[in-house]
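hey all, quick one before standup. I had two proteins in the batch that finished overnight and I want to keep them in one place so we stop losing track of which output belongs to which input. First protein below, input sequence then structure tokens straight from the run.
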Amino acid sequence: METQRTVVLVEGESDRVALLALAARLGRDLASEGVEVVAMGGITNVRSHAVRWSGAGVTLTGLYDAPEEPQLRRGLRRAGLVVEGRNLADLGFHRCEVDLEDELLRALGADRAEAVIEAAGDGRSLRLLAQMPVQRDWPREAVLRRFLTSQGGRKARYARLFVEALDLDRVPAPLLAVVGPGTRDPGADPATRGSKDSPTQEAP
């Protein structure tokens, strides 16, 4: 019997790295389970990816940021999925309340996040950033967020390091919902797909 394939759609590479790191910590071998985590390169690409990956034997799931929910719903609807009046979590798409970085920083706490950055050799860069006039009066969490976005590749690097530093009982709920043990298979619900005979009309 052919293994059910699952494609997890995420916005960017840092989301992908975080989910792969978490799966490894949980002892899951996503490849052997038929699970592929796909970075879309931005939420605006959700329709094309949903069209590309949806089909017989493929279950679509995903991780997204709360501010992007209207655009996610629009893209999924245009790809033929029935999302109107549905809770996206019931369809396998799980929401970060702000974004991935916010989820990880809240789970770790500022002290532990700073310790991870120090151990990775970037402590001086973080301290210099915190001492700059613009950031001097910012909360530590805001400085940490700015640090993560101030250099290319840093978000993805620390997505992995932060996940590896988490206590497993502190893993953010949306990440656990996507790759945790006992992950629900939304593909069993036929209402998540539009009819092939009557494709969804794109909104203008």
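OK second protein, same deal, sequence then tokens:
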Amino acid sequence: MLIETAAALIACAVAGRAAVRRVVIDEHQHALLIRDGRFVRPLTAGAHWLLRAGARVETIDRRPTVMQVPGQEVITADGVSVKLSLDITYAVVDAKRAIDANQHWLSAVYQAGHAALREAAGERTFDDLAAKRFDLVPRLRELIAAALTETGIALRAVALRDIMLSADLKKAFAEVVKARQEGLAALERARGETAALRALANAARLLQEQPALAQLKALSAIADAAARGGSTFVIGEAALPLRGAAAG
């Protein structure tokens, strides 16, 4: 009799052991216990023993995650087509809401980023976007955060990565830059010529007001040439030739 009782207890223990399973939840995970298709309760970090029949555990990472939204073609307020890309940092803060609100909750983040890019870029002209692209970030944060309000997902950060232009637009932009640089170079040349003319005009006025300056200038030039030698100078119609070498 005792043997039969012990055998029955062992059989029950084995059967009970087979009917349950051990589940370990990490600290960085959200965990939801689902039984027969219904939410039962959230599970905290640690080990849990669960009945095998009809029970499953849904886990979602609670750590901040970066999602890259690749080049999205958008139209600016003045009709220019450009591609923008960004990084979205998000974290799941309510796992049950994230699962209930979205069949694929990751897609909700992705779609929110795309929609925000289209709307924010459409509010600005291309020149404004190119010159102040990082000013677009606060508007992107506002739009994405609003789209994720009821999803159980919190927005942590938004970073605008690149502005990509089409080949034709790149060529046109390069031509504009080239024309601007050529215009600046021409302006600098004109400024230099104006300064030279102004200096000549000032010199002419001084010579007109002070005729002796012209004679001093001529004598200075003669002295410099004579010092080098090999020059002949004639001063006045009746003057004799003066050899630079002899004068030295």
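Flagging for whoever picks this up: Residues 115 and 175 are 32 Å apart (CA to CA). The chain is about 50% helix and 30% strand.
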